[in-house]
Design a protein that fits this description.
mainly alpha
Length: about 500
């Protein structure tokens, strides 16, 4: 009975954390999208492309900024206070070092992209790295304790300020600099809010073993995240280098909506599931239940959202961004499908981190990298549409490797995987058929067409899912409601039911 209560409590806390974390992402990214709609009408695609050049490289430097220490701090079970102090000092030093790096490599970045005008832009954006580093530990401590309802404050605050500042600067005629200074000011405000909300203070109590352990763990994460960042951004590098700033602007915009909902969900799953899985890492049956529960929960969201965006992109982009962004329509549709597939491969990665085996992730990332580079490089001959289509092929290959390896390492049978994702897959295919006929047959355009597609598509998905596996929907609704209202819930929840099929 005690074990059931513990499992139920952890699941309830996890689902509640998921809700708040995803609310944070949707709120923050939703604000980003709103400001993007405004900025898309004020700025040119090439201006978005110039900032895109800078941000794609800044992301690589930012990996050194956190040095994987945030992940190590979440996974750590002993001497947490000492580890947090060591992480705080390390993040300050790394932040300063990373700013110096951005200042020095700015001319090289400009030469790579054949755009000398980005040197001052890149150096200014480098200020965001030490400002981010200052707030890493307070924010990590909130996530470690699964207080996502508090971390949402800094996330939304950062995005509100970033968006508002960018729009004001754009209206003042600052052009591409409005995006740069909006980013820097938003990061500063986000770090300040993290300190205020977390109420964490360094005690300057250090331990040699804790410091060595957390830095050592972080070194594995650096390699992993560097490989992951290269994989996630190699398309930007190739588009920017080969196709130019305007194409990169269109491609960047094509990523905005899929990233808003689908890729953001990956990060939420990572933030919420890592502390949950780490807490049961020695209990294999519970680990199995939570792993497949996350896969089911994730597929219930990303499959319909990815396919839904693919069908509605031709309506959304002209309606909200204006006709000058029409070249981004087809890439948006293709990228939406690719990210929905890729999302499944994110859960195995979290599992490896939870059981302190990031070395497996490093090996997988290294093996995937040349495949991704070759496919995307070859696809650039068909422009940004070809690159977006290449993402789907890469997603299928990558997820196949991820699932095959985790099933071998953890001895999880493939039937559990298919049992977890098949209800969402079948329901999504049914929804796609309905969306196709609505788009082709119904004689309405614009906002009315979008509302009709969302309504009919959503009803179709939920209806078919109800017929296939109504228990999952009921358990999901019950678990979320119980978690949010702090009521007791059944020990069997949506995160565990996958193992029963």
């Amino acid at each position: 009975m005690s074990e059931r209560k513990t499992t139920s409590s952890l699941t309830q806390k996890t689902v509640k954390g998921f809700f708040w974390a995803y609310t944070s992402f949707l709120g923050g990214k939703g604000l980003n999208f709103l400001t993007t709609v405004i900025l898309a009408r004020l700025l040119l695609p090439a201006e978005f492309g110039l900032v895109g050049y800078c941000l794609v490289v800044i992301q690589y430097v930012d990996i050194l900024n956190s040095a994987g220490i945030d992940t190590a701090l979440i996974a750590r079970r002993e001497k947490v206070e000492e580890a947090a102090n060591a992480a705080f000092v390390a993040n300050i030093l790394f932040g300063i070092g990373c700013f110096i790096i951005t200042w020095l490599i700015a001319p090289l970045v400009a030469a790579f992209f054949k755009a000398p005008e980005i040197v001052p832009l890149f150096r200014a954006l480098g200020l965001s790295l030490p400002l981010t580093g200052i707030g890493v530990v307070p924010d990590t401590m909130l996530k470690r304790e699964m207080k996502f309802h508090l971390s949402i404050i800094s996330d939304i605050g950062r995005n509100v300020v970033k968006g508002a500042a960018s729009v004001v600067f754009a209206l003042l005629g600052w052009g591409v600099w409005s995006l740069v200074w909006g980013q820097v000011i938003g990061v500063l405000v986000g770090s300040i809010i993290s300190w205020i909300v977390a109420r964490w203070k360094p005690t300057w109590k250090f331990d040699r073993e804790a410091t060595r352990s957390i830095v050592g763990y972080g070194s594995h994460i650096i390699l992993l995240e560097t490989a992951g960042a290269f994989r996630n951004n190699v398309d930007y590098l190739l588009v920017g280098r080969i196709l130019g700033a305007a194409s990169l602007g269109f491609y960047t915009m094509a990523y905005r909506m899929p990233e808003l909902i689908i890729r953001s969900l990956n990060y939420v799953i990572g933030d919420v599931s890592l502390p949950a899985l780490a807490s049961v890492q020695s209990d294999r049956p519970k680990l199995h239940k939570f792993y497949f529960g996350y896969l089911r929960f994730l597929s219930m969201f990303v499959f319909p959202v990815g396919v839904g965006l693919a069908f509605t992109a031709p309506v959304i982009i002209p309606l909200f961004l204006s006709d000058k962004w029409i070249p981004a329509i087809v890439p948006t549709s293709l990228i939406s499908i690719a990210l929905a597939i890729t999302a499944l491969g994110f859960v195995p990665g979290v599992l490896y981190k939870a059981i302190s085996r990031p070395d497996i992730l490093n090996k997988l990332a290294i093996s995937k990298m040349p495949i991704a580079v070759l496919i995307l490089w070859y696809c650039t001959r068909w422009g940004i549409v070809g690159v977006a289509a290449g993402q789907i092929l890469i997603a299928v290959i990558s997820v196949s490797l991820d699932m095959g390896i985790v099933n071998r390492v953890m001895h999880y049978p493939f039937r559990d995987l298919f049992g977890a994702i098949s209800p969402a897959l079948i329901s999504t295919l049914s929804m796609a058929i309905v969306l196709f006929f609505v788009k082709e047959i119904v004689p309405v355009d614009g906002l009315v067409q979008l509302i009709l597609m969302v309504a009919l598509g959503g009803l179709t998905y939920l209806g078919v899912f109800w017929l296939i596996n109504r228990d999952a929907l009921l358990l999901g609704a019950t678990t979320i409601r119980s978690a949010l209202l702090r009521r007791k819930t059944s020990p069997k929840t949506v995160l565990e039911v996958a193992s029963d099929d």
